[in-house]
Amino acid sequence: MSLMITDDCINCDACVSECPNKAISQGDSIYVIDPNKCTECVGHFDTPQCREVCPVDCIPNDPNNVESKDQLMQKYQKLTGK
């Protein structure tokens, strides 16, 4: 399942540089995560790095983009060519 950023986001920029897939970008009022690029860091790290650095804990799972670990790994392989 990809992740999402809630309205609790304070636009601190901490998550942007942590995303290995460059899935996080500035939206209209808060940062947003592109579900086509988010692998929850599967293939890169054991845990989602954006969650690790978020000071307000505003990055839950996106219920509209449910994916298994296998699907996330396939997306990682497609994105990285590995």
TrEMBL record:
The keyword Metal-binding applies. Pfam families: Fer4_7. Keywords: 4Fe-4S, Electron transport, Iron, Iron-sulfur, Metal-binding, Repeat, Transport. GO terms for molecular function: 4 iron, 4 sulfur cluster binding; metal ion binding. GO terms for cellular component: cytoplasm. It comes from the Bacteria. The keyword Repeat applies. Residues 1-29, 31-64 form the 4Fe-4S ferredoxin-type domain. InterPro entries: 4Fe4S_Fe-S-bd, 4Fe4S_Fe_S_CS, PSI_iron-sulfur_center, YfhL-like. PANTHER family: PHOTOSYSTEM I IRON-SULFUR CENTER, PHOTOSYSTEM I IRON-SULFUR CENTER-RELATED. This is Ferredoxin (4Fe-4S cluster-containing protein) (Fdx-like). It comes from Georgfuchsia toluolica. The lineage of its organism: Bacteria, Pseudomonadati, Pseudomonadota, Betaproteobacteria, Nitrosomonadales. The gene is yfhL.
